[in-house]
Amino acid sequence: GFQPASRIASIGVSTILQIGARANAMKREGLPVIILGAGEPDFDTPDNVKEAAKAAIDRGETKYTALDGSPELKKAIAGKFLRENGIDYAVDEITVAAGAKQILFNAFMASLNPGDEVIIPTPYWTSYSDIVEICGGVPVLIPCDAAAGFRLKADQLEKAITPKTRWLLLNSPSNPSGAAYSQADYLPLIEVMLRHPHVWLMVDDMYEHIVYDGFRFTTPVAIEPRLKSRALTVNGVSKAYAMTGWRIGYAGGPKALIKAMAVIQSQATSCPCSVSQAAAIAALNGPQDFLRERTASFQKRRDLVVGRLNAIEGLDCLVPEGAFYTFSGCAGVLGTTTPSGKTIATDADFCAYLLDEAHVAVVPGSAFGLSPYFRISYATSETDLVEALDRIERACAALR
Ligand code: PLP
């Protein structure tokens, strides 16, 4: 039979995808399942972006492009970094790939030697640790719980750094916690980074535009230019512009790293999709005002979900600064028994109970490296959210 390569021996199919598959199978059987697991906006791609893609097809932009992004798109990205983040990346300090996920993959593939360590605060986006492992690295997971605001602290970072540390990987606003780092949160971490010049910094700013209550987004290289020579600032169009299916992510970083990443990409995908690149140019250069409207709509739903969760005995949810997830504590329901006599010992048990009995699909904290919590994606209709929260409330009330 088939024997998988050792590099993927410890890596299974993502829990999130497994739960999604089960929930969809239940739906096909006719059960009224509400899925709060998806990591994508429920909005449509803006019309100006779609039109730009159609025009690109009609112009014949249907061939291979430059390896790591067309010059026009790189120019648009450089413009974005300067305009929105105050970072001056030259065009040869920018790379484009089929999603931020491929950016991360290219970067780790291009930089990690076997045994190199990558510091990742938990809870983390599941792909981080899996990509690091596939690339031969060792994820060093640092728990950052609700009491810490789901943010890494300087002393934790200091303690985690070893001679083998290659990268610190940060994500703000975070999937799954929604926590974001303010300038004041970043400063002590930056100080530690400056004391350890062998450590590089990768920041995933994917949810930059989805922040609430006037939170001021910032990114480490904008705060401390001395980090620019050993930082990769990762971003993309998937979440802000509702373009998950177009598969365009990008990053700014030192030329040598960008070149090494292109070597990986050249043997993986040759270039990002030409039509999607034209669309991404329109997204970055086009009108941005719809972002505010969409964020206001997300904020309304965030307030609804957080309010309802905190009214349920046993659950405890911090108010997230951004993204479209809540990461609620569920310590208060552990040790209880379901009406059918099952014990809830873990957050995974709790999520299985919610799916089986309440027909609501959410993802356990264990999938993100921190328990006991569960993630709700509220990028779905208010009607579905209200119904799902009614069901979660009833399901929790039925626990003994
Ligand atoms: N980074 C974070 C934190 C994410 O949550 C996601 C998607 O879920 C990505 C990156 C990947 O985005 P892309 O669609 O650009 O690959």
From TrEMBL:
Domain Aminotransferase class I/classII large span(s) in chain numbering: 33-392
PROSITE patterns named in the record: AA_TRANSFER_CLASS_1
CDD domains per record: AAT_like
Necessary cofactors: pyridoxal 5'-phosphate
GO biological process: amino acid metabolic process
Molecular function via GO: L-aspartate:2-oxoglutarate aminotransferase activity; pyridoxal phosphate binding
Keywords assigned by UniProt, alphabetized: Aminotransferase, Pyridoxal phosphate, Transferase
Transferase as UniProt keyword: yes
EC number annotated for this UniProt entry: 2.6.1.-
Pfam family, one: Aminotran_1_2
Catalytically driven reaction(s): L-aspartate + 2-oxoglutarate = oxaloacetate + L-glutamate
InterPro entries in UniProt: Aminotransferase_I/II_large, AspAT/PAT-like, NHTrfase_class1_PyrdxlP-BS, PyrdxlP-dep_Trfase, PyrdxlP-dep_Trfase_major, PyrdxlP-dep_Trfase_small
Organism superkingdom: Bacteria
Subunit note: Homodimer.
Family: Belongs to the class-I pyridoxal-phosphate-dependent aminotransferase family.
Protein name: Aminotransferase
Species whose genome carries this gene: Rhizobium freirei PRF 81
Record gene name: aatB
